[in-house]
Amino acid sequence: MRVLLIEDAPRIASFVVKGLGAAGYTVDHVVTGAEGFARAQDPTVDLVILDLGLPDLDGTEVLERLRARGVRVPVLILTARGEVADRVEGLELGADDYLTKPFAFDELLARVRARLRGREAQVGWTLRAGGVELDLRTRNVTGPDGPVELTAREFALLETFMRHAGQVLSREQLLARVWDINWDPGSNVVDVYVGYLRRKLGGRLFETVRGAGYRFPGGGDARIDAGSPVPPEGGPAAS
Ligand code: CA
């Protein structure tokens, strides 16, 4: 599970990043509203923790802009202002929960888990979409024409596509997720690996969305088996 933390106070940020990291979450941390607004639109983000007092934009403005764009990611607001008026305003703008500073880490963790429960419950050991089945334990992959052998990198790329079936993923998002490197506009490594997967699984599964990236079919019909909890994205199975 991937959490985006938008918080400018270094001590709080470090406390949250370390704590959630230790609890098994992948945490991306940014300090400005503008950067947070941009990153929160990444479909691989499962939860946003948003401070209201940011150096550039107010947190409520970030939230308002995200909801206006149709970004539905759950948002947990951190606020030093405990006033009822702020809570009501935030709820109207589409926040899912609140935590008033100062807070105990356990309280934050409980809120994060509550917000992610629905998503975590969907995480099992087998991903199925587009006629492909991917087993996270055995790392076996079965395509429309039968079992296929994938390299570790191909497996990680396919897993990312299948976890986000139906969504357009940009090259930048895929590079950050699968190769863990920042976007190099000159790199065509994503296209090369999509080519490998197309050869092994069929070209129709990796639709090119011009100017945007790639899309794996599914979404509505994509299914992730419920079962044993975990492993979250970015965990051992994805590395
Ligand atoms: Ca602040």
Number of helices: 8
* Secondary-structure element series: EHEHEHEHEHEEEEHEHHEEE
* Radius of gyration over C-alpha positions, nearest whole angstrom: 19 Å
> Distance N terminus to C terminus?
14 Å
Helix content: 25-40%
Please state how the strands of the largest beta sheet are arranged side by side.
Answer: 2-1-3-4-5
Q: What small molecules are bound in this structure?
A: calcium ion
> Which class do the helix and strand fractions yield?
alpha/beta
Tally of DSSP β-strands: 13
Give structural attributes:
239 residues, alpha/beta, 5-stranded parallel beta sheet, 5-stranded antiparallel beta sheet, 13 strands, disordered C terminus, binds calcium ion
Question: Could you explain how this protein is built, in words?
Answer:
The structure is a single chain. This protein has 239 residues and is α/β, with parallel strands linked by helices. The protein is 38% helix and 20% strand. It contains 8 helices and 13 strands. The chain has helices spanning 10-22, 33-40, 59-68, 84-93, 105-121, 152-163, 171-179, 189-201, and strands at 2-6, 26-30, 47-51, 75-79, 97-100, 126-129, 132-135, 141-143, 146-148, 168-169, 207-209, 213-215, 223-224. A 5-stranded parallel sheet has the order 2-1-3-4-5, with helices on both faces. The chain has a 5-stranded antiparallel sheet with strand order 9-8-7-6-13, covered by helices on one side. It has a 3-stranded antiparallel sheet with strand order 10-12-11. Helix 2 packs parallel to helix 3 (59-68), helix 6 (152-163) crosses helix 7 and helix 6 (152-163) packs across helix 8 (189-201). Mean pLDDT is 82; it is low at 220-232 and 234-239. Bound molecules: calcium ion. The site of calcium ion has 5 residues, from loops.
